[in-house]
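RESIDUES AND SHAPES:
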Amino acid sequence: MARKKQFDKEKVLDKAMKLFWEKGYNATSMDDLVSALGINRASMYNTFGSKYELFEQSLDKYNTTNTIRIADFLYYQLNVRKGLQLLFENLITEALSSGPSKGCFMVNTTTELANTNPVLDKKLQDSRLSLETVFYNYLKYGVDNGQISPYKDIKTIAAYLFTVQSGLYVNSKINSSKEELGKAVTAALSILD
């Protein structure tokens, strides 16, 4: 008879995600995982597979959670320009207050591991496309409501906003000036004028 798991898989996955997010894939050892997750190696392997499979599951969870979080935030912002400004201000505050320059898990993974594994590259591309779609839909709402010119190329602007977001996370690792990062956002959003 199989033994019943003595842990909550989702809570353990959250812990793994936070550890990979903080340390990166390469700097996270199996001993780190066993210690942080509070489960033994056998349980970890039986439940999540290898370290790499656990990392992939962590990325998937982060991508889903982050995309929904941003989409939900924007959904309640009726003024598109102000909504984007608030989103980026919140991201800056979060990036600067999240400890030792944690940044964004996907951005960190991109800078650490892009072009090392085709499956991982696909996950990173999917994450980018998910967020670009959120931005596109929000910009489309702005066009439909007369807040953004219908002559703007909102598909390109959505991709640009993803680039701005990623850049903010990277820059926040070396620039802790909320004012400077905020000015960069204001300049970036001038594309909507």
